[in-house]
């Protein structure tokens, strides 16, 4: 039986990654990744907008090894923000702090973020800091609070499988947060391991964040969770302009358009770029049945 742990192992295996990237994003990855260039990403976003869907794009890449790579990543984010503005699409930008040098030099990462936020503010755009594994959580939240002293157009993501998330939600009151279940394999001493416990904690943080009047981006493909959120917002008179739903590009596409047709904001997370391998493996880890994407991709070549 193919397990979640197996795909998470593959996501970090350099030998398999090197082999896979030589094939290009063929073996199913093209189903969930919007190409390798900014132009391809903008084309995909425009098509989503035409269906009534908003978007957020993410140039794939993380854990850079030197200052030059971190600066290049920052400059690519700026180019992407300029492209969003020039094309006039309904789209935000998501990014990872490790791609901007968090593991190399915190000040370098901060300066890169300040530059990105300055450009985003000039375009009237919003930046979402993706949450990474548990080892980067405190550094991410610490830097977020520093950045928000100068810029309000930035938020992050909180993971429902962590024990500490309800407390983090309270500390982040008033900040636009993406609320997710979590995609990394974390230890039992910091994270719930059973699906039922994760689901319950996830619902708890969604409700807590909404009830304190903060904007919530509910990121899930679980239609049962979505239905409960719809019912909760109606019961508590929370307007459709006070939250949104988010899903990944290529997953449950009919449900995405159905939600948008009901008048809810539906934002699609659109990854692009050459460094697609780790992202794709984590998506398979979340839903191992999606390995069928890979098989169909390989057989079509």
Automatic annotation (TrEMBL):
Keywords: FAD, Flavoprotein, Nucleotide-binding, Oxidoreductase, Proline metabolism. Binds 1 FAD per subunit. One of its GO terms (biological process) is L-proline catabolic process to L-glutamate. SUPFAM superfamilies: FAD-linked oxidoreductase. Substrate binds at residues 96, 282-283. InterPro entries: FAD-linked_oxidoreductase-like, PRODH_bac_arc, Proline_DH_dom, Proline_oxidase. Its cofactor is FAD. Pathway: Amino-acid degradation; L-proline degradation into L-glutamate; L-glutamate from L-proline: step 1/2. This is proline dehydrogenase.
């Amino acid at each position: 039986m193919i397990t979640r742990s197996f795909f998470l192992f593959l996501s970090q295996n350099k030998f398999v990654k090197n082999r896979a990237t030589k094939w290009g994003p063929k073996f199913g990855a093209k189903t969930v990744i919007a190409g390798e260039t900014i132009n391809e990403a903008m084309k995909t976003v425009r098509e989503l907008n035409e269906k009534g869907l908003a978007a957020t794009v993410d140039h794939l890449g993380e854990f850079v090894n030197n200052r030059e790579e971190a600066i290049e990543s920052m400059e690519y984010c700026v180019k992407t923000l300029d492209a969003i503005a020039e094309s006039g699409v309904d789209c935000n930008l998501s990014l990872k702090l490790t791609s901007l040098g968090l593991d190399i030099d915190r000040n370098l990462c901060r300066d890169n973020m300040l530059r990105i936020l300055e450009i985003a503010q000039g375009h009237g755009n919003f930046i979402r800091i993706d949450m990474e594994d548990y080892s980067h959580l405190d550094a991410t939240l610490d830097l977020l609070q520093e950045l928000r002293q100068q810029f309000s157009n930035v938020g992050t993501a909180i993971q429902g499988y962590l024990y500490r998330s309800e407390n983090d939600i309270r500390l982040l009151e008033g900040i636009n947060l993406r609320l997710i279940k979590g995609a990394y394999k974390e230890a039992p001493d910091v994270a719930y391991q059973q699906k039922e416990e994760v689901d319950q904690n996830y619902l708890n943080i969604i409700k807590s964040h909404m009830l304190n009047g903060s904007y919530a981006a509910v990121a899930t493909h679980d239609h049962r969770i979505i239905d409960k959120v719809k019912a909760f917002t109606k019961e508590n008179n929370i307007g459709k302009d006070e939250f949104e739903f988010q899903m990944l590009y290529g997953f449950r596409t009919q449900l995405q358009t159905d939600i948008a047709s009901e008048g809810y904001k539906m934002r699609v997370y659109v990854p692009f770029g050459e460094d697609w391998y780790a992202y794709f493996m984590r998506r398979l880890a979340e839903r191992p049945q999606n390995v069928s994407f890979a098989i169909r991709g390989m057989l079509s070549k």
